[in-house]
Amino acid sequence: MRAQLRDTLIASLEEIAKDEAWDRERVTVLATQDCTDRQYAGPVAAAAGLTHHVIDVTLSGLLEELPTCMQVLKTFDPMELRNNIAVCRALREAAGLGFTCAVTGDGADELFGGYNFTHKLEERAWLESRRRTIEVMHFGSATLGRHFGVHVASPYLSPAIVQAALKLSKQDCVREHDGRVLGKWPLRLACPEVLTCWRTKDPIEVGCGSTMLGDRPWLPSAPPGYFHEVYSDGDFERGQRAAAEEGVEIRDREHLHYYQVFRTVFPGGEVLGKPRFGSDPCPKCHYQLSHPQQTFCVTCGHYDPQLRDRHQATAGAPPL
User: Fold this and answer.
1) Rounded to an integer, what distance in angstroms lies between the CA atom of residue 155 and that of residue 28?
2) Which H helix or E strand runs over 111?
């Protein structure tokens, strides 16, 4: 269980609708001492009267989930993996406890303006950004759940909730509170009494601490990522060259590590259902892009907002 607003609301509503015939328990994964979920998860579970299972794990311990995540999700995208290794560990624990159903808050940020990088957009651009996001959004939790025999329900992704959200404007979803611009206002107003009502948005990797695996250049005082102690400059350069010979562009040490594990999970880089050098390949890894409008490769993590324009320009260019 996360301790974000979206998850707190689900926990609270589960308590309201409590049926004694069902056990309702929560699992939280924490990988560093200063991860932001640590201060919230316990009080949220206690307030809802839920049994709380806390998995305190090291970063190296959390990385043990990489092969499973890669096998199931077919990716070496660092952002995807930093988030989903925590989800994977939580679902593994849930399955081990005998649970066959889990509930997540997937979709709330996409539907209700939770991401702060959209908050400065004008109304029309914000609506268009949300529409595109809804078209291509995907979540690893359901796929990972099936691997463990756990059905993952995501209430925010129900058609009725999606259609209701699409009727809301940016003003309905994004407003200022105590000097901070926050999204998800419909959820905050629906349950103002919950403990995390005014908590800012943290992605899973920040909440659980796996964000420490990567470099964070947007934070001037952030220390180098975990993999700077794993790969020397020489190791990284050799690994980068080897990947390039296989047609994959590696961005940093974290990306190199994930790619090397990916190649052990999928020998020769052959992934069932994910062709390379096909009709619509990513320019950085050459695996097929997942959607005709996709500007973000779900396999390697390459992002280019102008990717489709570049593809069209290339496709329409006269032969040399």
Assistant:
1) 19
2) helix 108-112
